[in-house]
Amino acid sequence: MRRARVPFVPAWRCISFLLGLLTVWVALASPLDTFSSFIITAHMIQHMLLMMIAPPLILLGAPLIPLVRGLPIFAAREFAGPFLNWRVAQRIGRALTNLWAALVLMGVVMFAWHTPRLYELALASSSWHEVEHACFFFASLIFWWPVVQPWPSRAQSPRWLVVPYLLLADLQNTALSAILVFSDRLLYPSYAAMPRLSGFSATHDQVAAGAIMWVMGSMAYVIPALIIAVQWLSLPSSEFRSMPAPVRLSAGQGARRAFRFARSLRRQSGARKVEAMRFIVLFALAGVCLAVLSSGGSDDDDQVLRTRQTSGPFIISVFAAPDLQPGENDFAVLVQDSRTQDAVPEATVGLRAQPKQGPSQSKFVRAATDSENHLLQSAGVELPDSGHWNLEVTARHRMETAAITLPLNVTAPEAGFALSWSWIVLIAFAAVLLFAYLWRHRAGRMRRSPEVLSTSCEGVFIPPGSAAPVTVENLSQSRSVSESST
Length: 486
Fold this sequence. Notes:
Blueprint: H1 11-29, H2 31-35, H3 40-60, H4 64-69, H5 73-84, H6 87-96, H7 99-113, H8 116-124, H9 126-148, H10 162-182, H11 190-193, H12 202-234, H13 251-267, H14 272-295, E1 304-311, E2 314-320, E3 327-337, E4 348-355, E5 365-366, E6 377-383, E7 387-397, E8 400-410, H15 421-440, H16 472-477
Antiparallel strand pairs: 1-2, 2-3, 3-6, 4-5, 4-7, 7-8
Helix pairs in contact: 1-3, 3-9, 3-12, 7-9, 7-10, 8-9, 10-12, 14-15
């Protein structure tokens, strides 16, 4: 970025962007995520990080230009540049980042996903849980866009309107928080059935979650509103800007920089096919790796509580997938002290499956603490045939021992080929890119479509809604580019 002389991307913006990514990691990959199905307060903190902390930090990093410039040359030239200068995309972007549209979208997403039906759906399925998080995160990016106004975007409304915009959002957050705090019943029954890992009941946990949402949400909205109000009252309107405006180059400067970039492109014209092949290989490797990683392995969110029994000194909770199929199935066990309900992760846990009818030849399988939640001990138990089975679970700690039995129903998988959602997304995205490329290079036309320089040019960026883009054809015809085309 420094070599390209792109202004307004100092080191603190890079730090802000990385802090935003770190916040996303804390929300989605730390113990907050694994405990979100046990404790409502953990789930609420997770939502607050995704909605109130990570989006403004990421937008303060002004990520648009670094992300586009970081793409392969082929991807920036064929996809990113044309898309950013596509009028339909610009209109959709302006409509979504309008103050009142963003406010309504944020409110709808917040209230919809906190209704008991959708909230319970997210708790019962890891896929829907990921959809919930995606809705929160991307709706919050849209909401915070007019507040931060990341460079090089331009505000659509006067800056002072952001203050009532944030205060109205705070009212939405307060209303939802009050419902959680003052409700006389548990809104999400799944938490009543789950083992309690804290010293208070599920109802008190719900009240605490509402209080956290109330306090954190109000601070996230009111503090930026106060800062913007003070800035607006302190500076003349002609000097007040939410973010630095894009640098305006003179016609001569823009033409010289654009021509230098076009000349470098002409030098690389012989390597266009190599660039395309590199992009295809990189896209295929990255896409296949992401699809395999997201579709393989077990996820604690995919397991549901199958039983919770008290036996002697322990409370034993067993988690497994909703549908068991012949073969090895993963089980997770939580052992708690029946007197204090404290977790006992150091207990020795063994599991053995026996058919309800017929002799048993299976042996105990010792569980280990290798799941995402280190309070759970997991093990794979072989269920060779479909039918009815009994799962024996024993727990031993010091001189105390307990055992429970869990009936299981193993069903044979349905015939047919099942394709996971990650592969469907990868194939659909590849099809969209291929269609976009073929549309821009339609068969039967000898000339190439205009290649938008966009952010790939040395320091020249054409933000959405500004003047017409510079094309390589115009630059290659003559070294003197007219002021209008620049």
